[in-house]
Design brief:
19 strands; alpha+beta; globular; Uridine Diphospho-n-acetylenolpyruvylglucosamine Reductase, domain 1; 310 residues; single chain; five-stranded antiparallel beta sheet; binds flavin-adenine dinucleotide
């Protein structure tokens, strides 16, 4: 690891190369283990250098956006986590063409607000999703009948080893429900091009406010979480199945099935990743037993179990 750190330091400030990094500080669940190394490149060149160096090292590495859909197990991540957000913060708006170019580190909320300020609509659905544009483009984030795939026209990518840069059309991204071709390739979103519509900014802001009110009404935003914990199983809603299974408020340690929205698992205070995972298993088993439905986590779970636990 020391040789790798030395190579990274040739291009990246020491303060952005963090050994034994506490991932609770970088995820919205606010819990979990430590990563052997966290690298936070501050420019595209730094990101590229990081990818090239880390890929050459042969060690495992993982791409992190805003950490709003990730749980790192308590045993930590044996490898390098690359937090891409700060490297890619550009936005360019073309009002005449109703297009917006957004780099992947920009928060969805910032991108949605910028669209509205520039009299463009189409991003209202995304304003309350606490992820980065890169994470959203990777997994086709969506809400309130909107999905990233409906507004993306193309995506600029860099290969996982940092060696190739290329552009995919929205069709080439092979988007499905919380899915894209990147699930297989592991390549990294650098920027996206969006096709929006010209609109009255008062109306765009009003729609955003209405959706924000619906969100805070229904969702336990006052507690750390990663949003809806499970994917929507075909023909069902995860939250409804969990509620009907009688699991509202079910608690393991500091983790709880939210009383406000059964689709959310929240960190009520002091939850460990193991609490959350045990709760997940209990919910999955109960829903399977009562309704015969398999609930699959939407949250990405990475890292190792703590010693003595599997
Ligand atoms: C309160 C709350 C509400 C939420 N509501 C919604 C909702 O309504 N709809 C919804 O879809 N999601 C929702 N989420 C989940 C989450 O915000 C989204 O999935 C978001 O798109 C994740 O983005 P991120 O940048 O945080 O990604 P991360 O959590 O950092 O990463 C998620 C995945 O994306 C990959 N990734 C991240 N950046 C890149 C990149 N640049 N290139 C390639 N891969 C990348 C990671 O490797 C990882 O596999 C919610 C979460 C919370 C906490």
């Amino acid at each position: 690891m020391e040789a790798l750190i030395r190579q990274l330091k040739e291009h990246i400030d020491e303060e952005n190369i963090i050994a034994n990094a506490d991932m609770a500080e970088h995820t919205t669940f606010k819990c979990g283990g430590k990563a052997d190394l966290l690298v936070i490149p501050q420019s595209y060149d730094e990101l590229k250098h990081t990818l090239l160096t880390v890929a050459d090292s042969g060690r495992d590495y993982y791409i992190l956006g805003n950490g709003s859909n990730i749980l790192v197990k308590d045993g930590g991540y044996r490898g390098i986590i690359i937090k891409t957000m700060y490297a890619l913060q550009g936005i360019y708006v073309d009002y005449e063409e109703a297009q917006m170019f957004v780099q992947s580190g920009v928060l969805l909320s910032t991108a949605a607000r910028t669209a509205a300020q520039n009299m463009l609509s189409g991003m209202e659905f995304a304003a309350g999703i606490p992820g980065s544009v890169g994470g959203a483009a990777y997994m086709n984030a969506g809400a309130y009948d909107g999905e990233m795939k409906n507004i993306i026209t193309n995506v600029r990518l860099i290969s996982r080893d940092g060696r190739h840069e290329y552009t995919y059309t929205v069709d080439e991204m092979q988007y499905g429900y919380r899915r894209s071709v990147l699930y297989n390739s592991g390549d990294i979103v650098v920027s996206i091009m969006l096709q929006l519509k010209q609109d009255d900014p008062h109306e765009v802001f009003a729609r955003m406010e209405e959706l924000a009110a619906r969100r805070s009404d229904k969702q336990p935003l006052e507690f750390p979480s990663a949003g809806s914990f499970f994917k929507r199983p075909e023909g069902h809603f995860a939250g409804k199945l969990i509620e009907e299974a009688g699991l509202r408020g079910l608690t393991v340690g500091g983790a709880q099935v939210s009383e406000k929205h059964c689709g959310f698992v929240i960190n009520k205070g002091g939850a460990t990743a193991s609490d959350i995972i045990m709760l997940m298993h209990l919910v999955q088993a109960s829903v399977k037993e009562q309704f015969g439905v398999d609930l699959e986590p939407e949250v990405r779970i990475i890292g190792e179990d703590p010693e003595g636990q599997q």
